[in-house]
Amino acid sequence: MKTTDLVLAIALLASGTFTGSAQVLDSIPDTQVEPPEEIIQQAYTEGNRQAPPKQRVKLDGIAAVVGDYVILDSDVEKTLIDLRNQGATEEDVDQCSLLGKLMEDRLYAHQAVQDSILVSDDEVNSTSDQYIQEFVQRLGSMEKVLEFYNQETVEDLREELFKINKLQMLSQRMQQDIVGEIEVTPEEVRQFFNKIPEDERPVFGAELEIAQIVKKPEIPEEEKQKVVDLLNEIREDVVDNGASFRVKAILYSQDPGSKSKGGFYSMTRQTPFVKEFKDVAFSLREGEISEPFESPFGYHIIFIEKIRGQELDLRHILIQPEVPQKALDDARKDLDSIRTHIMEGKYTFGEAALNFSDEKETKFDGGVLRNPADFGSRFELTKMDPKLYNQVRNLKDNEISTPALEPDPRGGPPSYKILMVTNRFDEHEADFARDYMKIQELALRDKQFRAIREWMSERIDETYISLDSDYKGCEFTNNWLKD
Questions:
Q1: In angstroms, rounded to a whole number, what is the distance separating the alpha carbons of residues 291 and 288?
Q2: DSSP for 175-232?
Q3: Beta strand pairing call for 56-57 and 41-42
Q4: Given phi > 0 = left and psi -120 to 50 = alpha, else beta, which region is 150?
Q5: Helices (H), 253-324
Q6: What is the rounded average pLDDT of the residues 270-291?
Q7: Residue 402 to residues 22, 245, 261, 274, Cα–Cα distance (Å)
Q8: What integer pLDDT is reported at residue 407 of this predicted model?
Q9: Nearest Cα to 277, choosing from 245, 222, 247, 317?
Q10: What integer pLDDT is reported at residue 218 of this predicted model?
């Protein structure tokens, strides 16, 4: 099994571009196994008594050592081959630049451990299990996943994923710790923009502003009560009869992210769960099971398995009420009627969104969608989510789409929506007033980049780094050679 295949697959899953059939990039194995002192061996044997007892020689295959991490020559070679198989050219990536990137990742992870920025095994296992479930969904079965990644057992696959995710999560948390509190003031944004020569200012592509009105199906109270009754039965069986909450979660929960592992999650107050879930979880004592409660995903019960300071180990069961077809039909008819009244001029699209939309995030802003990249109202055509682009690309000015059924990306019940393009902006050179949000984002990234470079320079100086002589002629971005 090529550990690096898994790394790319994980990255592609996160971006939503995993296909399950394309050749996969080689990757970066987590070699947090031995510290450098145990990898660089003494060159003293019975046949070489001339060598001083503490002389050290590099073992074959070691390209670099960064702190407690090792990068093998084979890691670099395999990653390079797979990148080129994916279409990268020699100009895009070479051994030197690739090794520099692998060393950066190891330095982040090494320093994270030194700074006690830790990742619990439960978090890593939870992430690994989520990826395995994604792999199974994409490829069709666990057998196909094991075959695709040349693993004999699920435990072998989990072991490889654990190594990869542990390294990646440490690296990511260290980077977030470096830049997490960096902000830019309006004056810094202005100075950043003014320093860009006029003939080098960025050009922003054609953009759209989009608004939507959402109608969610009204689930009958009797369907909700069925779910609440079932959750109460499960809770009573666990509390009164000692039934296993983990087994109940496997049998009944409809949460794809935790069902296979008995509803388990490890979380803190910073974990991105919905407010309703966090409020209940952090109100419970260790060993306690909540009453059924509602969230945007459905109805839950939570069992607190362990409390470790601000971190909880919990299990939960999610069950969603059934959405009758009549409820879906009624939502579509309501939205169709709203669309007709807007077109007849009875009210504007913004007024209709405020009064009728069931989406709290947009209704108070006239239904205007926010770009997740910068939270602005504009979507650059070349960077739009393909699904959203296909929904609006044929809409003319002031035209309203017909109601379209859309699943909830968070796992809740589906809903109907109508869309309207409220503004169009042609391709143009960056303008400070007109494009402030985008310029602010560029200024923030520039400041974060400079902070990362400064941090990297300082940590390289104080961290044990060993580089194979074959790479000492490389021109690295960072001072790995400590010249």
A1: 10
A2: HHHHHTT----HHHHHHHHHTS-GGG--EE--EEEEEEEEE-----HHHHHHHHHHHH
A3: antiparallel
A4: left
A5: 275-281
A6: 93
A7: 36, 45, 41, 31
A8: 86
A9: 317
A10: 92
Do 164 and 7 touch, CB atoms closer than 8 A?
A: yes
CA 342 to chain centre: 38
Q: What is the pLDDT of residues 302-361, one digit of tens each?
A: 999 999 888 899 999 999 999 999 999 999 999 999 999 999 999 999 999 999 999 988
Name the pairing type of β-strands 465-467 and 207-215.
unpaired
Query: What's the whole-number mean pLDDT along residues 417-444?
Result: 92
Q: How far, rounded to the nearest angstrom, does the alpha carbon of residue 331 sit from its chain's CA centroid?
A: 32
Are the beta carbons of 435 and 204 closer than 8 angstroms? yes
Contacts of residue 363, Cβ cutoff 8 Å, sequence gap at least 6 = 213, 353, 354, 357
- Specify the pTM: 0.60
Query: CB neighbours of 284 closer than 8 A, spacing ≥ 6?
Result: 290, 302, 304
Contact yes or no for 401/419 (Cβ under 8 A): yes
The owner of tokens 């926010």 is: 370
H-helix or E-strand spanning residue 465 = strand 465-467
Q: What is the mean pLDDT of residues 204-210?
A: 92
Contact between 339 and 356 (Cβ < 8 Å): no
Q: Which of 118, 96, 103 is nearest to 463 (CA)?
A: 103
Closest CA to 188 of 457, 448, 458: 448
Residue 445 near residue 182, CB atoms below 8 Å? no
Q: What is the pLDDT of residues 241-275, one digit of tens each?
A: 999 999 999 999 999 888 988 999 988 888 888 89
Structure tokens, 293: 């409660």
**Tokens standing for 34?**
């031995």
What average pLDDT does range 149-158 have in this prediction? Answer: 84
Which of 1-5, 82-86, 194-198, 259-263 ranks highest by mean pLDDT? 194-198
Q: With CA atoms as reference, report the closest residue to 25 among 80, 73, 64.
A: 80
CB 266 within 8 A of CB 122: yes
Burial of 168 (0-12, 13-18, 19+ CB in 10 A): buried
**CA distances to 110, 132, 215, 282, 288 from 285, in Å:** 35, 31, 38, 8, 5
C-beta atoms surrounding 260 within 10 Å: 17
Of the chain, the end-to-end C-alpha distance in Å amounts to 38
Radius of gyration of the chain (CA): 27
Q: What backbone torsions phi and psi does residue 293 show, to the nearest 5 degrees?
A: -140, 160
